[in-house]
Write a structure and sequence with these properties.
signal; Porin; Beta-barrel_OMP; OMP/PagP_B-barrel; Outer membrane protein beta-barrel domain-containing protein; elongated
Length: 223
């Protein structure tokens, strides 16, 4: 995550130094912003003043995982999904009317926000005269659920949601602050006892409360 923030900060400096057109005051009142990054989505933006812009939007992210990993010299197939679906409202504040720099903050609601992983050995196991297939060994499933939460977020950015011309590009860097996820841990066959570790894993994830925001913003003038 540290590398994401460092790259974002460097890109922000480049935009600030080489895109002076972003800093010009805009008379645009209504715009559309498309976010590409860790929280992709779309927002409608309305200008309240040269310093303040109100935004409302929807973010959606879906990632599928299916790969083999070597864990303790054992080949394990890991399948999973990460889904994020939120609605949100936020405010951009430009401290300087002629500058593209902004700070932003808002609140969102997670309609759906889950990470689900299932792991199963790729190979069987031989114990004495007994050989167990991967299916007989079983599998382990893990789920972290952030759904149904009110989540504040804040950050900084370069670029305006209401461009002076018809289109502009910006960058934002920040984070969501969530509640601790609800954890579900289960297993089949030889992995059935893993369910007994659920409370321990839940406690260990109490501090998993941050979701990074690193987006390129494509802003379009509507009115």
């Amino acid at each position: 995550m540290k590398h994401l923030y460092i790259c974002g900060a460097l890109l922000a400096l480049l935009l600030l130094n080489y895109c002076p057109c972003l800093a010009q005051h805009s008379s645009t009142k209504l715009g559309l912003v498309l976010d590409l990054g860790t929280t992709p989505g779309a927002k409608l933006a309305y200008g309240l003043s040269p310093h303040v812009t109100l935004k409302a939007g929807y973010n959606w992210l879906g990632v599928n995982l299916n790969r083999s990993l070597d864990i303790s010299d054992e080949s394990v197939n890991v399948k999973g999904k990460i889904n994020l679906s939120t609605v949100n409202v936020s405010v951009d504040y430009h401290p300087f009317a002629q500058s593209a720099f902004r700070v932003f903050g808002g609140v969102g609601y997670t309609l759906g926000a889950k990470a689900h992983l299932t792991a199963q050995p790729n190979q069987g196991y031989v114990y004495g005269d007994t050989e167990l297939t991967p299916e007989q060994l079983g599998s382990m499933s893990f789920e972290a659920d952030y759904s149904g939460q009110v989540v504040p977020f804040a950050g900084i950015g370069i670029g305006r949601a209401l461009p002076r011309k018809r289109f502009s590009v910006g960058l934002e860097l920040g984070t969501y602050y969530t509640q601790a996820p609800k954890v579900h841990l289960s297993g089949t066959n030889l992995f059935t006892p893993m369910a007994g570790q659920q409370a321990i894993v839940q406690k260990n994830m109490e501090d998993w409360r941050f979701w990074p925001v690193l987006n390129i913003n494509l802003a379009f003038k509507l009115l």
